[in-house]
Amino acid sequence: MWRCPQGLLLLLLLAAELALGVRRGRGRRELAPALHLRGIRDAGGRYCQEQDLCCRGRADHCALPYLGTTCYCDLFCNRTISDCCPDFWDFCLGVPPPFPPSQGCMHEGRIYPVLGTYWDNCNRCTCHENGQWACDQEPCLVDQDMINAINQGNYGWRAGNHSAFWGMTLDEGIRYRLGTIRPSSSVTSMNEIHTVLVPGEVLPTAFEASEKWPNLIHEPLDQGNCAGSWAFSTAAVASDRVSIHSLGHMTPVLSPQNLLSCDKHNQQGCRGGHLDGAWWFLRRRGVVSDRCYPFSSQEKNEAGPAPRCMMHSRATGRGKRQATAHCPSHQVHANDIYQVTPAYRLGSSEKEIMKELIENGPVQALMEVHEDFFLYQGGIYRHTPVSLQRPEQYRRHGTHSVKITGWGEESLPDGRTLKYWVSPCTASLQPLPPPPAPAPAHASPPSQTAANSWGPAWGERGHFRIVRGANECDIESFVLAVWGRVGMEDMGHR
Predict the structure, then answer these.
(1) Same domain, 292 and 368
(2) What is the DSSP string of 368-397?
(3) Does 247 map to a domain?
(4) CB burial class (10 A; 0-12, 13-18, 19+) of residue 191?
(5) Confidence at residue 17, expressed as pLDDT on a 0 to 100 scale
(6) pLDDT in tens, 84-97
(7) Which family is annotated (predicted)?
(8) Strands, DSSP E only, in 241-372?
(9) pLDDT score of 451
(10) What is the Cα–Cα distance from 374 to 376, expressed in whole angstroms?
């Protein structure tokens, strides 16, 4: 570290460095528009001092983040338009700043300029002229207080920050990350198909569909900010069942976009949809593969029009259909139409769901998603009471649909057994922090494994486990399955 007691030496060094810069063809650094007008001089704070950073001449690595841009601690920063860090003058040069710092607001160790507006997670904050730091009070999808309360509460699962949810409000999470409309009473009253275990039949304590049917169980796609779990979970379950029931002769990853864009009857695309309508479309119209008709991810934008349907089909006899258009993806030519038989509802008994799953493949389940589910990082999930002492706007829930692929159980320290379902989830702004140490589990009802559509970075590599046998979050109350529509002509290689 070096210090200069005199401003004259500074000016001489700067002039020499500028001359060298011209000879070497160096241009000035690119600055944010506001800095071209005033330079970095709006607020104080410890920057160079905190990092013990001072550099001679021009050193582009001698830089620190500053309010969404970059400030420098090298001598070259002192120019007509300054991009020096606020404490460069007194710390590195030992001289008063050439312009006094404006009044600012101290927040988390930084001083922010007056009248500036900044984002703190999902809330907009402003530094007022009286030095008061004021923020909106929207509940955020990533809530550090809730994460801490869950991890300290020994609920049997651990919470954390999923980076794709950072900056979203809880309301936006419910609105954009779910998307299955609760079925009408006429649909929920449909007859259940009951499966009876034969006398003496014992189901295994653990099962995973991908182990029984290797290469036939597909990872769910990421639905992003599309409230289309109705389409993603339906396509995911249909993909697995067509593959299993064709004995591996057809192994498509079916297109949720085909459903989102083309299933228009009482459906709202990325604003929500009905499971019964999705299965009707798969039975009567069919869909192509995701490679043929890939998902068009979208940002949060309720007003945006739904992409038009780019894939239609026509009947060819015996209930089969064929595409009448080329694949929207110009990289793929195979536009085969895949269909299923009518969907059927299973009984809500865990044994019946398990028997259907182990014999015929993954099933689709409806569930209620609460505010704490978005924070899930691992363990066996059950809804926690941590928000009960907070205002009502912190307690939100919405309907989601997922694919259940298996089940298992864990032994608790007290000798009791915790059962679960397994599911993959279909669904980034800051790096994820290291996950906290797993919380010890309380005694609880049994659990299951399920698949979500929020991408592989969420939960347990895109999957979650949830308590089984207790209808946790209503996950056992409405479970659907189908058969892939497979004929002898389909058993050849495609």
Answers:
(1) yes
(2) EEETTGGGEEEEEE---STTTTS-GGG--E
(3) yes
(4) exposed
(5) 45
(6) 888 888 899 888 87
(7) Belongs to the peptidase C1 family.
(8) 313-317, 320-323, 344-346, 363-370
(9) 59
(10) 6
**Looking at the 3D structure of the chain, how many domains does it have?**
3
Q: What pLDDT does 298 receive?
A: 61
Q: Give CA–CA dist 263/312, Å, rounded.
A: 11
Mention every residue, 6+ apart, whose C-beta is less than 8 A from residue 232: 220, 221, 223, 256, 426, 453
Average confidence (pLDDT) over 355-384:
96
CA 482 – CA 345 distance, rounded (Å): 9
Same domain, 55 and 197: no
Residue for token pair 């300290």: 152
Q: Do 112 and 238 have their domain in common?
A: no
Phi, psi (deg, nearest 5) at residue 90: -80, -35
Report the C-alpha gap between 68 and 46 in whole angstroms: 16
- Here the tokens at position 88 are 């460069």
In angstroms, the CA 189 to CA 148 distance is 41
CA 240 to each of CA 406, 446, 482, 484: distance values in angstroms, whole numbers, following the listed order: 13, 26, 10, 9
Q: How far apart are CA 433 and CA 44, in angstroms?
A: 29
Where in the sequence is the domain holding 72, given as residue range(s)? 45-99
User: What count of other Cβ atoms lies within 10 Å of the Cβ of residue 390?
Assistant: 15
476: left (phi over 0), alpha (psi -120 to 50) or beta: alpha
- Tell me: do 78 and 195 sit in the same domain: no
Secondary structure, 3-state, 291-308: CCCCCCCCCCCCCCCCCC
393 and 312 within one domain: yes
* DSSP string for 414-438: TS-EEEEEEEEEB---SPPPPPPPP
Task: Indicate whether 411 and 465 sit together in one domain.
Answer: yes
SS3 state of residue 184: coil
- Asked if 375 and 404 sit in the same domain, the reply is yes
Same domain, 118 and 253: no
Sign of the C-alpha dihedral, residues 139, 142, 147, 150?
A: positive
